[in-house]
Amino acid sequence: MNDTTSKTSTAIFLHGIMELFRKDIPQSVLDKARLSLADYIGVTLAGATVMRDKIERYVQQEQLEPGEIKAIGMDQGMNLKDAVFFNGLNGHALDFDDGTNTGIIHLGSPIFSVLLPLAQKYKVDSTKFLEAAVIGYETSFTMAASIQPTHKELGYHATGTCGVLGISLAVAYMLDFTEEQAQNAFSIACVSATGMLSVLDDHSELKPYNVAKSALLGLISIQMARMGFLGHSDPLGGGRGYLKMMTGEALVDFKQPHLNGTYAIEKTYTKPYAACRYCHPAIEAAITLREKYRIIASEVSAIHVKTYYWAVNKHDHTDISGVSSAKMSIPYGIAVGLIYGKAGLSEYTMEQVKNRTILDLTSKVSVESDDELTAQFPAVTAAVLTLTTKSGQEFMERVDFPKGEPENPMTEKEFTERFIELAVYGGKKREESAEMLEFIKKMDGCMDRLYQYL
């Protein structure tokens, strides 16, 4: 970069990320990337099953062009753009994909939705692919962590707005772009950035669309860069740049890549419950109380939850209008957790959403923002649940790090069982699912066998 651009917001941000292009990524981090890939594939296979009816109608009406690329969980070959779009849509359909509380973002679904089809198209080896994923995670996370929570307060969905940036640099690395091509791809991605949180409101089913369109726009960004389109030299800065649009401020104090000594991909959570991550501490507290004290739902008179502000906002509703609404509701998650001792895919279906026993218990839950817990977020994602029975007994449980956080990771057995459950839900046999997971864990070199599984 020349002297005239060396101090721009874009140059500052890109300098830190581009340094990773030249560093050896530790094997332990690449092993974590393998698990992140497996997580993404599992939730996308299951998501494709949930979305099947809508996608089949779309395919029939639009008469998709045939091609050689397969979208995960879909039988027919299609062109690259369609595969990327459907991967993104299915990858976030269940809201079961990985993410981080710092940055308030789902990281894997936009990035892997593009990397996998491109790796298939260009015969990329597994090491290069995994390294690219690590760089993509770092890019999206570093930006999200730098602009949150103001970004969310303005109504933006960072999974889309920051996810597209991660795609651009992940692909630039994987396909060996020149530095100029990488900067242009990033610049075009900044122009493409989109995603609004109003998709969480009322009956909307468009939250996965934020990922799908960002994946597609990320692909287009790198294609335009390869064609030679020039981007603005400082798309992040200035009075009309990305930062001004996304935060209201033209300058932002960027977090450092490799924040606190770990890669972004090491900071991610894996979801044990099929709900928004904000719901998980309270769900886990409810399940823990059930197991400790053999709580019976019919004996509950009231449940009160204290948690951090971001978990309360738009997640405290007891009026459940559909599956998407249930996934965003702390009260609903608590109800199914107490009744079934779990909150997986089978607890978030239209049949369950209409279940009167669940809805009656949901109505007994109140959620309150607590200043002390809010101040601890995102380092601690706590919920304190107090349950009162009809006989007047009171039980309390606090969860600071719900299962799946780096501080409280899933065991290898738990992760394996979760992956197989998702893959089987997505139409795979148990044996095939277990084989696929083992291949991902040991994948070295050619990735063709993985595409056959998908």
UniProtKB/TrEMBL annotation:
InterPro entries: MmgE/PrpD_sf (IPR036148), MmgE/PrpD_sf_1 (IPR042183), MmgE/PrpD_sf_2 (IPR042188), MmgE_PrpD (IPR005656), MmgE_PrpD_C (IPR045337), MmgE_PrpD_N (IPR045336). SUPFAM superfamilies: 2-methylcitrate dehydratase PrpD. It comes from [Clostridium] citroniae WAL-17108. Belongs to the PrpD family. Residues 273-433 form the MmgE/PrpD C-terminal domain. Residues 20-250 form the MmgE/PrpD N-terminal domain. GO terms for molecular function: lyase activity. This is MmgE/PrpD family protein.
